[in-house]
What does this fold into?
Amino acid sequence: MALLSGALGAAVTLLATRQRWAEGTATVAGGAFPLTAKGSDVTGVPAALAIVGLAALVAVFAVRRAGRLVVSGLLALSGAGIAAAALMTASDGSALDDKAAKVSGDTSATVHALGHTGWPYVAAVGGLLILLAGLLALRYGSLWPAMSGRYERGTAGPRRTARPADPERPEEIWKALDRGEDPTGA
It folds into this structure.
């Protein structure tokens, strides 16, 4: 559930930040010029935190004990940050004002007939899904399986003993030659 929630939340957030969040018109040379701003123009925080959330989601399954708690907390915080940033900038028109200033050449130009879409709220829902994944990982993460420590250095697992080398095998003769020994001498 946490993996699905986190992956879906990150995908929804990344999709929402690529969509149009605001639109309006600027007056340029006596005429109206339509302008739009994507979510990434308004704020880069949701997309960046969605990437952090995806990385934390994968890392939750790679770490153990205290590391899992830390990564789960990072996952939850990234989801909360996405939701907060998307909601705080849902009615922001400064990105369009900046575009109007560039188009008109007037730094004091502003956008008229400002309108907003529902995509910031979709990004906030994505953030809430990532937050849910983080909270589930904090609560139930200690019960989840972890990656195997089989190949980690210093494990005290059983080791297979090497079988004795047969001096008559061709590869052993070549190894003896590589060491500078004469395999034909007795």
Observations:
- The chain has a mean pLDDT of 84.
- The first helix runs from residue 2 to 17.
- The chain has one domain: 2-147.
- The helical segments are 2-17, 39-42, 45-60, 65-88, 94-104, 119-140, 170-178.
